[in-house]
UniProtKB/TrEMBL annotation:
It is an enzyme of class 1 (oxidoreductase). Belongs to the NADH dehydrogenase family. GO terms for molecular function: oxidoreductase activity. This is NAD(P)/FAD-dependent oxidoreductase. Its cofactor is FAD. Residues 3-285 form the FAD/NAD(P)-binding domain. Gene3D superfamilies: 3.50.50.100. Keywords: FAD, Flavoprotein, Oxidoreductase. InterPro entries: FAD/NAD-bd_sf, FAD/NAD-binding_dom, NADH-Q_oxidoreductase. Its EC number is 1.6.5.-.
Length: 355
């Protein structure tokens, strides 16, 4: 029996499962999915879990069930490319014929002293739960620092404001304006929302050190009661330990078929893959669509296309609490209630398609 092993139950590998099961998986092939949790976690919603506006069960869906799908729960110790085997921390070994690496990312601290030790995270569902517990336990008037004003930082800061109106929230942005790579109208809308809801956006910031209850921004020290880090990501350690060719962000270089250049049986999807676009759930799903086509052609012994279609993303959606949002779609900016309803609709459709 040929073994297709999927590392990580994120957006990319969930799309692969959705396309292969229940009827498109060859009878001589089985799938082994390895993940630390027994369910698929919707990472794009972890900000709401951490802020306390969504319950744990609302940000996860079950993995599909199939007689030739085995789910292995646990932590991955090493990816053995030479051995064609995955080494688990439990001592278990999982052999593969084809492998899809979709293990996602973890926080990148940019060598800032104390950042890894004294900040909270929303990179995994477990860390988001811990962040929620910490923020929930803060007294009224406490100061929360959110380091990083990308999409995750913006959504966390706004959701936390709705959850805890009694907290003082500071959002630290390295840029002179929020979402500086997008139209100024979009930036101004988000900035105005924060001004109206008493979230202090600290522009042109540079966090140089983190201590317990203290942030260093340039030469200034800022007292804080909790800090959440959303200022950069990198592939997880088992992927970094492979020592493969990577881009400046540590993402693995792949060929046009999403494979390792020297191993056609190993694919990389999602946050671990070096692509010209920024990592996102949408990008991982588009990659997965192409990987499924390559797998099916390879299993049938069919030649691969000379070139693969260019991946084109639709844009992005962001929320500002439960009533307002912003979107950048087809080079057009949408703000306000409509954008928030669009995001809610996309989330509902995702849950529906994934059971």
């Amino acid at each position: 029996m040929r073994k297709l092993v999927l590392l990580g139950g994120g957006y990319g590998n969930m799309r692969i499962l959705l396309r292969l099961l229940p009827t498109n998986l060859p009878r001589d092939t089985e799938i082994i999915l390895i993940d630390r949790t027994p369910f698929h976690s919707m990472k794009t919603e972890f900000y709401a879990l951490a802020a306390g506006t969504e319950a744990d069960h609302e940000v996860r869906v079950p993995f599909p069930e199939h007689e030739r799908l085995t789910v292995v729960n646990g932590e991955i110790l090493e990816i053995g490319l030479q051995e064609k085997c995955i080494f688990m921390e439990s001592g278990e070994r999982v052999a593969y014929d084809d492998l899809v690496i979709g293990l996602g990312c973890e926080d990148k601290y940019h060598s800032v002293p104390g950042a890894d030790e004294f900040t909270f995270s929303i990179q995994t569902i477990g860390k988001s739960r811990a962040t929620y517990q910490a923020l929930l336990g803060l007294p009224s008037g406490a100061v929360v620092g959110v380091v990083g004003a990308g999409l995750s930082g913006i959504e966390l800061a706004s959701e936390l404001r709705e959850s805890r109106s009694d907290l003082k929230i500071k959002l630290f942005d390295r840029s002179p304006r929020i979402l500086r790579d997008f139209p100024e109208r979009l930036s101004n809308f988000v900035k105005k929302w924060f001004e109206n809801h008493n979230v202090d956006v600290v522009s042109n910031s540079n966090i140089t050190k983190v201590e317990p209850n203290l942030l260093y921004n340039h030469e200034e020290t800022i007292p804080v009661d909790a800090v959440v880090w959303t200022a950069g990501i990198q592939p997880v350690k088992p992927v970094r330990d492979l020592g493969l060719e990577s881009d400046n962000s540590g993402r693995i270089v792949i060929n046009q078929y999403h494979q390792l250049p020297n191993d056609e049986h190993v694919y990389v999807v999602g946050d671990c893959a070096a692509l010209p676009m920024a990592p996102s759930a949408q990008l991982a799903e588009e990659q997965a669509e192409q990987i499924v086509k390559i797998l099916k052609a390879t299993w049938k012994g069919e030649p691969l296309p000379e070139t693969m279609p260019e991946i084109k993303l639709k844009g992005f959606l962001g929320s500002l609490g439960k009533k307002q949002g912003f979107a950048y779609l087809a080079d057009r900016t949408v703000t306000g209630r409509i954008a928030r309803l669009m995001k809610s609709g996309v989330l509902w459709m995702y849950k529906w398609h994934n059971g």
